[in-house]
Amino acid sequence: MANSERTTCLVVGGGPAGMVLGLLMARAGVAVTVLEKHGDFLRDFRGDTVHASTLTLLDELGLGDRFAAVPHRLLQRMQVQLDGGTAAVADMSRLPGAHQHIALVPQWDFLDLLADAAAEEPTFTLRRDAEVVGLLRDGERVTGVRYRDRTDGTEHELRADVTVACDGRGSAVRAAAGLVPRSFGTPMDVWWFRLPRREDDPAGGVARFSSGHFAVMIDRGDYWQMAYLIKKGSDAELRAAGIERFRARVAGLVPWVADRLDALASFDDVKLLDVRLERLRRWSTDGLLLIGDAAHAMSPVGGVGINLAVADAVAAARILAPALRSGGIVPESVLRRVRRRRWWPTAVVQGAQRIAHRVVFSSPPDVADAPRPGPVDAPAPDWLAPGESGSTDTAGLPLPLRLAARFPVLQALPARMVAIGPLPEHAPEWARRPPLAVRDAAAT
User: Fold this and answer.
1) pTM surpassing 0.90?
2) How many angstroms separate the Cα of 289 from the Cα of each of 162, 314, 335, 419?
3) Which domain holds residue 58?
4) Domain with 201 in it: what CATH number?
5) Running DSSP on this structure, what letter comes out for residue 233?
6) pLDDT tens digit sequence for 260-310
7) In 3D, which of 161, 127, 173, 123 has the Cα closest to residue 6?
């Protein structure tokens, strides 16, 4: 027989949305338990961008100094090199507020920071190696979950006044609830892999686009985390062509990494991300709320998924915490308020991503049309370095990019859309804390 326990707010999934929600609920004095399927946060090829809106939230929560102590890099400008020249896409220096940049930080460090802060609250519990295997119900109302302890195989029941699913695009909770998202379709998938990074390589973010070939490189210090776009559903076919063919594609697109591509020993080193763009029509049922990727899977375009998920969590905490503190059953009408607030910014961003798919990725490449490699010893070009203006030859660029180069003020619009978003959320007053240094000074 399964062991049975109880909490007030049950959060399934220890990603950015789940950990932020757990922290905020605990600061509201609500008993909250976060169930995380894995034993730690150390998983490769997760989003690593912490945008200006989230950095502002960390300041409001008194965690800005802790984040500053985590090794990270700052991206002030977003640029992409096309065959016709270098295009400045977004200039973060034009953003309002203290954070005129995007931070690149391994997601596990970000999650550890949130987990440590939440653990300081007496009403917070984090259960690792806890895999949800089903929902508990009282009639039509969701009253909790059944989960398996992956360390010993035992099953447990955890009941709650409200269950919040933050378990990602493959949400087990969503499937158990019988909720099916609307899919908008995407023309591409993404291959993730690593390449060594050298001291004289550029710092920050790298983007390269050529005739339908597109790669993004994220600076992880001693290596590059690389994303390479492929045609949707072509993974098996391209893998069958062999790793040498893929190395040639990467060398043709980014010649200055050609001499280190032997780090890709086989396709075991290349992981597939099945790109989805989905959104639930309903984000809640009686006793259950879904947020983040569980409610709306985002394309990797713009790297905004983490920050939208965090904003969902802040809105959910602001709406749910007062209802949970008052006791009694939280009606579904309260849960629906979260969707009403977060639906339109989600729809706006997903609409922009759909346009990007059609305009930029309308003709994903086949193996045969890979760009030809340049010189192996070609130096890393200055267009890759954050803060550098790069090439001024814009004659071969698309019109929107030529306009952005000629009128730099236009670069503020994509910067704001990516780094802040259409509806940034701010920490409730009851969740705010002064910075740690201020608290230490006050204590002495």
Assistant:
1) no
2) 8, 14, 6, 26
3) 3-75+101-184+277-359+419-443
4) 3.30.9
5) T
6) 999 999 999 999 988 889 999 999 999 999 999 999 999 888 888 889 999
7) 161
